[in-house]
Specification:
- The protein is α+β, with helices and mostly antiparallel strands.
- The chain has a single domain, classed as Lipocalin (Beta Barrel).
- Helix content is about 35%, strand content about 50%.
- It has 3 helices and 7 strands.
Length: about 190
C-alpha cells in the first residue's frame, strides 16, 4: 500500500514538473516573439521618422504595441507589446485593448510607439497601466506605410505616442478609449 501511494505521488510530481517546464517553454517562446516584433516595429518607425531613433535612445523608456481591430459604428481592437526601461534594460510584457463608438468603418493592423519623457511616467505606465481617449481620423495603410492624420504624433502628458497603420483602412470620427496593462502570464 505504501509503495502504491509513493508511486502515485512520484508520478504526480513528475507530471507537474513536466507541465511547468512546457509552460515555461511556451512563455519564453511568446516573449521572444514579442521582442522580435518590437525590434521590427522600431525599425519601421525609424525609417518613417529617423529622428525617433535618437529620441528613443535618450528617453527613460518606451513601449511598442501591435494591435488588430475592426469597426463599424462600434469598434474594438486588441494587441500586445512591451515596455522597455532604457536604464535597467528590463522588458515588461503588456496587453492593450481599445473600444470606440462613432461614425466609423474599417479594419486595420496598427503599430504604436510610446516614448516616455520621465522615469516616473514609464513606471506609472508599467505599474498602473494607462487609459487614454480621443478622436480618430481617416487613415489608410499597406505594407508598413500609412497616410492620414492618424499616422502622426499625439502629445500625452510625459509621453509622445506615434502610430503606423500596417495594413487596412479606417475612416471616421469616434470617441475612443484605450487601456494598457501588464500581461500576468508573460512577466
Amino acid at each position: 500500500m505504501k509503495w502504491h501511494l509513493l508511486l502515485t505521488t512520484g508520478v504526480l510530481a513528475l507530471s507537474l514538473a513536466a507541465g511547468n517546464a512546457l509552460a515555461q517553454g511556451e512563455k519564453a517562446k511568446k516573449q521572444a516573439e514579442i521582442k522580435k516584433v518590437t525590434s521590427t516595429t522600431l525599425e519601421k518607425f525609424y525609417k518613417a521618422k529617423p529622428e525617433l531613433k535618437g529620441e528613443v535612445a535618450k528617453a527613460p523608456g518606451y513601449a511598442v504595441f501591435t494591435t488588430f481591430g475592426l469597426s463599424f459604428l462600434i469598434g474594438g481592437a486588441g494587441g500586445s507589446g512591451l515596455a522597455h526601461d532604457n536604464k535597467t534594460k528590463k522588458d515588461t510584457y503588456m496587453n492593450m485593448a481599445q473600444a470606440s463608438a462613432g461614425l466609423q468603418v474599417g479594419a486595420a493592423e496598427t503599430e504604436t510607439l510610446i516614448i516616455f519623457k520621465s522615469p516616473k511616467a514609464l513606471q506609472t505606465f508599467i505599474d498602473k497601466g494607462w487609459e487614454a481617449g480621443g478622436a480618430a481620423a481617416a487613415q489608410a495603410g499597406a505594407a508598413g506605410k500609412s497616410v492620414g492624420p492618424g499616422g502622426g504624433e499625439q502629445a500625452i502628458a510625459d509621453a509622445s505616442l506615434y502610430t503606423l497603420t500596417k495594413n487596412g483602412l479606417t475612416a471616421g470620427v469616434a470617441a475612443t478609449g484605450t487601456k494598457f496593462w501588464k500581461d500576468k502570464e508573460l512577466n
